[in-house]
Design goal:
Elements: H1 4-68, H2 71-78, H3 82-100, E1 104-109, E2 113-117, H4 133-141, E3 145-151, E4 154-165, E5 168-178, H5 182-189, E6 193-199, E7 213-214, E8 217-222, H6 225-230, H7 233-239, E9 244-248, E10 251-259, E11 265-274, H8 276-310, H9 312-327, H10 344-511, H11 516-652
Antiparallel strand pairs: 1-2, 1-5, 3-4, 4-5, 6-8, 6-11, 7-8, 9-10, 10-11
Helix pairs in contact: 1-8, 1-10, 10-11
């Protein structure tokens, strides 16, 4: 029993050491994997938060673009008609505030003068250019802007679009919503905590900014007081510049920048994940390890005890002595299997191995001389092979250089032929354009001659027409009054249609992808309404002109007769001029037809040349690649020959 005791103690010490080692190893591995999962989850959460902000900003920008594209909005802004804008958009803003949580709808004049606040119509005319940089940028550059911006009332997500009148920026429209996404992010991402903090240097802009201060930062949203206690002011500073991750107590915190519309960092976003799952997993793994090692220790103690009973260790000592002698090259020692107890078979195996080793050594000595002779012959052959491969490699290098030059020349030919083809194409297009223009000119000449002939016939009837005009002037006055009534009715219908189109476009923007088709219909309705308004304006102008002309019509009748006579003479002259033009155009057209056929032949020839040079270049490139492959193979072959020489030298030694 005393002989067994040291082995049992050794097994127990080894078991305890294994438990400690495996426990530490398991902790490190599990902790590493768990931290990797936490880091990957934090990166996903960070991208999700940025994506959420972008989606809201895109929605605000879409609404701003819809409103800025409306014709009546452009006209109202150009006329500085604040009251009409107020009537249209204040009721609409109240509806959108309830349904879509939009709390900002503003119109501005350049650079950033408040023109109308739909959420506060009584306030306007104040200059916002000192802090409303989105508005200043849009009015200056004429392009939409979206993203986070800090105002006097705090942080918000905005979309601003320019309002243009005849391609000139006359103002801008803005939609926005408060920065209140914290609860949504907590719910969507199942986080332990989240906080948004702004740097205190921004307080001079947002004078209403209030909240708990942590270092140089102000908390604008936090999921809990516990979250605020976990935040480190130093990590906040670093997180404003780059992503920072770290453990705090039983939580894993990630800090990353909060950026405004321009990409400038204005604060830090902090998210917290719980490490409770990792701690539970570690405890479970450690308990399992302790159990496994204890069971293994008990089994090992039992094996040691049984081995002593069977005399295994004594037999193992005998085998160790024999093995040590064999290892030192002493084959004179005799193996007595019968003294090895139940390991007698092992003794017989060792005795047979001794005899076979002695025979093998004798054979090895006889073959040593033969190997030396063969190695000399192989060495000589490998040297010859090396010289041949070097010669082949030099020839391949010369071929490769020639192929490179040929490929470069072929590519240059291909490039020049392509340039010639392009020039020919342009020349052909130019000739076709000239031919088409001549055709249109000829058509115009024919139309002109026809018009002159018709004009001559019409002049004869003008005299009689002037008499009828005098009789119809009295009827014209009564008709204009009726037309004015119809114009007023159409104007009322167009205004109502425009308002319906505005509401439909906003509803379609809110519906997103599902409302795209409806948005197209709404846009077409809006265009029809705008065309109706234009038609109304034209009709009004015509009515005014009719009234003026009815007064002057009687006085103009005598002048009309004189003008008709002069027009008749001019018509004859025009007819002669058109005849000359027709002859010259036909002559030019015939000339260009011949030129065009020549250009077609030249262009086809250049295309064939271009195709041929391209095919040659491709084939030369392929040959060059094959040559490179052969060079690599020869290089590898030379290396193998050198290694073979080295091995032969070693074998000779």
């Amino acid at each position: 029993m005393k002989k067994i005791l040291p082995f049992i103690v050794l097994i127990l010490v080894a078991s305890i050491g294994s438990i400690i080692f495996m426990g530490l190893y398991n902790y490190n591995v599990t902790s590493k994997h768990f931290h990797e999962n936490l880091e990957n989850k934090a990166k996903f959460d960070m991208e999700y938060i940025y994506s959420t902000i972008d989606n809201i900003a895109n929605s605000m920008e879409d609404l701003a673009l819809v409103v800025s594209s409306m014709k009546f909005v452009q006209i109202m802004m150009a006329n500085e008609d604040r009251e009409s804008l107020k009537e249209e958009f204040v009721p609409l803003f109240e509806k959108m505030k309830k349904e879509r949580n939009i709390n900002i709808l503003q119109f501005h004049k350049p650079p950033a003068i408040s023109f109308l606040r739909a959420h506060a119509p009584e306030k306007y005319g104040d200059d916002l250019s000192s802090f409303r940089l989105t508005v200043v940028k849009v009015n200056r550059e004429g392009k939409p802007v979206k993203g986070i911006e800090l105002g006097k009332a705090g942080l918000s997500i905005r979309g601003v679009a320019p309002i243009k009148f005849f391609d000139k920026v006359i103002g801008s429209v803005e939609f926005g919503t408060s920065f209140n996404i914290g609860d949504k992010i907590m719910k969507d991402l199942s986080l332990e905590g989240v906080a948004f903090l702004l740097h205190k240097s921004l307080k001079k802009i947002a004078w209403k900014l209030k909240g708990e201060e942590i270092g140089d930062f102000v908390v604008i949203y936090s999921s809990s007081d516990k979250m605020n206690k976990l935040i480190d002011p130093k990590d906040l500073e670093e997180g404003m510049k780059e992503v920072v991750m770290g453990d705090v107590e039983k939580s894993f915190l990630t800090y990353f920048p909060l950026k405004d519309f321009s990409g400038k960092s204005i604060g830090t976003i902090v998210i917290s994940q719980s490490k409770h799952e990792m701690i539970q997993l570690l405890n479970k793994n450690i308990r399992m390890l302790i159990l496994i090692i204890l069971i293994t220790s008990i089994i090992m103690i039992a094996i040691v005890f049984v081995s002593f009973k069977l005399g295994v260790f004594k037999a193992v000592d005998s085998i160790s002595v024999v093995t040590e002698k064999f290892g030192s090259g002493d084959f004179t020692i005799r193996v007595e299997p019968k003294k090895m107890g139940f390991l007698e078979k092992v003794g017989n195996y060792m005795l047979n191995m001794r005899e076979k080793l002695i025979n093998s050594m004798l054979k090895l000595k006889d073959s040593e001389k033969s190997v030396e002779d063969v190695s000399k012959e192989v060495f000589q052959l490998s040297e010859n092979l090396g010289e041949i491969s070097k010669s082949i490699r030099k020839k391949f290098e010369m071929i490769n250089a020639s192929l490179t030059d040929a490929t470069a020349n072929t590519e240059e030919i291909s490039a020049r032929s392509s340039n010639v083809s392009e020039i020919s194409e342009r020349a052909k297009r130019s000739s076709e354009e000239v031919k088409e223009e001549l055709g249109r000119t000829l058509e115009a000449v024919n139309r002109g001659m026809g018009s002159v002939e018709k004009m001559s016939k019409v002049i004869g009837g003008v005299v009689e027409g002037t008499k009828e005009v005098s009789n119809n002037l009295s009827n014209l006055t009564s008709l204009t009054e009726k037309i004015e009534e119809i114009v007023q009715l159409i104007s009322s219908i167009a205004s109502q249609t425009n308002l319906l189109a505005l509401n439909a476009a906003i509803e379609a923007a809110r519906a997103g992808e599902a409302g795209k088709g409806f948005a197209v219909v709404a846009d077409e309705i809006r265009k029809l309404a705008e065309e109706s308004e234009k038609a109304i304006e034209n009709i009004a102008d015509i009515l005014r002109n009719i009234r003026e002309y009815t007064v002057k019509a009687d006085e103009s009748m005598e002048n009309v007769l004189k003008v008709v006579s002069e027009a008749e003479e001019e018509g004859k002259s025009l007819n002669e001029i058109f005849g000359e033009i027709e002859k010259k155009v036909k002559s030019a057209n015939e000339t260009f037809e011949g030129f065009e056929s020549q250009m077609d032949e030249q262009l086809n020839a250049m295309k064939e040349i271009d195709d041929a040079t391209t095919e040659i270049a491709n084939r030369m490139t392929k040959i060059n690649e094959l040559s490179d492959e052969m060079m690599k193979m020869m290089k590898g072959h030379n290396e193998l020959v050198e290694k073979l020489n080295e091995q032969n030298k070693k074998l000779s030694e």
